[in-house]
């Protein structure tokens, strides 16, 4: 009597469908169904142990076996079949993949023509050892990549430190070379406690002083006129040499600033070519609208911390 069997799920591939059909055919030609049922569980257990291309599990629900249904996994395809059909299907599959003399079916694929039945070697799933090897290879590749990245970061950090050290040494060398250009020249008065100022517009156009202003000076945001390397435009007495002379002054409060003599105070207005009647030895040449309000109120640049105190040291700058 022909037995109704449950059709495999839609996930079943074309090759497996062919095998299931053959299993049904063998079932119809086999011993009574009761005989197959009696030994189905033992056969399935045996098959699980003897082949590496098929994995069979009893279908479960809530942790309990349903008994009549089996899950068959063939090359990653999951098939749910009744127990009897599952046994016959797997047996049929083993017959085809073991080199039996039975005629091997061909599978027609749309637009691809006739393709031969897949052999055992091509259907074999990777073993746990193969999977573990792949995992180990991936893990090793990740470790190598991390090590290379760490090495690149370390090399970049070392390069940054080397560049910083080179820049520091270069700056120190520049400062040392700059310091060698200064020589002590003495101060004409240690009592000068006033730094007066005059607007640069008071310098006569076309004069030597005006030419120096045009050639070397730029107006700064604080109203002072400076060279590109920071020398402030000033007027000094004849004690400090000709126009164009450069000095570095140090105050009693430890402040230092560099100046360039742009104008000369008249000897008629100074004592020994040094200080004037306001006890000013240095007179800044400025842009009046931009000077600090404290200077405007006090009338002297010593009201600013950067120029506070009296002049205690003068150093001549040699180009």
Please characterize this protein's 3D structure:
It is a single chain. With 319 residues, the chain is of the alpha+beta class. It has two domains: 14-123, no CATH class; 182-317. The chain is 38% helix and 24% strand. The protein has seven helices and 14 strands. It has helices at residues 14-29, 33-50, 83-97, 120-123, 128-179, 208-216, 293-298, and strands spanning 54-61, 64-74, 77-82, 107-109, 113-115, 182-184, 194-199, 218-219, 225-226, 232-236, 246-251, 256-264, 280-286, 311-317. The strands form four sheets. Strands 6-14-11-12-10-13-7 form a seven-stranded mixed β-sheet. It has a three-stranded antiparallel β-sheet with strand order 1-2-3, with helices on one face.
């Amino acid at each position: 009597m022909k037995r109704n069997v449950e059709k495999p799920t839609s996930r079943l591939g074309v090759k497996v469908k062919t095998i299931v059909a053959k299993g049904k055919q063998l079932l119809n030609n086999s011993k009574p169904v009761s005989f197959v049922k009696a030994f189905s569980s033992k056969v399935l257990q045996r098959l699980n142990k003897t082949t590496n291309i098929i994995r069979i599990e009893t279908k479960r629900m809530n942790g309990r076996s349903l008994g009549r249904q089996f899950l068959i996994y063939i090359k990653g395809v999951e098939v749910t079949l009744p127990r009897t059909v599952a046994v016959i299907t797997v047996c049929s599959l083993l017959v085809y993949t073991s080199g039996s003399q039975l005629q091997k079916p061909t599978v027609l694929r749309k637009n691809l023509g006739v393709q031969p039945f897949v052999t055992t070697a091509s259907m074999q799933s990777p073993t746990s050892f193969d999977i573990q090897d792949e995992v180990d290879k991936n893990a090793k590749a990740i470790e190598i990549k991390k090590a290379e990245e760490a090495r690149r970061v370390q090399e970049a950090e070392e390069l940054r430190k080397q560049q910083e050290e080179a820049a520091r040494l270069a700056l120190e060398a520049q400062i040392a070379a700059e310091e060698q250009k200064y020589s002590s020249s003495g101060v004409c008065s240690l009592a000068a406690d006033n730094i007066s100022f005059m607007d640069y517009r008071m310098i006569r156009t076309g004069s030597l002083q005006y030419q120096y202003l045009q050639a070397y000076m730029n107006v700064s945001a604080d109203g002072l006129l400076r060279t590109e390397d920071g020398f402030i435009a000033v007027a000094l007495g004849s004690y400090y040499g000709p126009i164009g002379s450069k000095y570095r002054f140090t105050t009693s409060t430890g402040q230092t600033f560099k100046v360039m003599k742009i104008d000369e105070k008249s000897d008629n207005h100074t004592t020994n070519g040094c200080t004037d009647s306001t006890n000013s030895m240095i007179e800044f040449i400025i842009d009046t609208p931009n000077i600090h309000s404290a200077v405007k109120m006090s009338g002297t640049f010593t009201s600013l911390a950067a120029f506070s105190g009296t002049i205690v040291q003068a150093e001549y700058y040699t180009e």
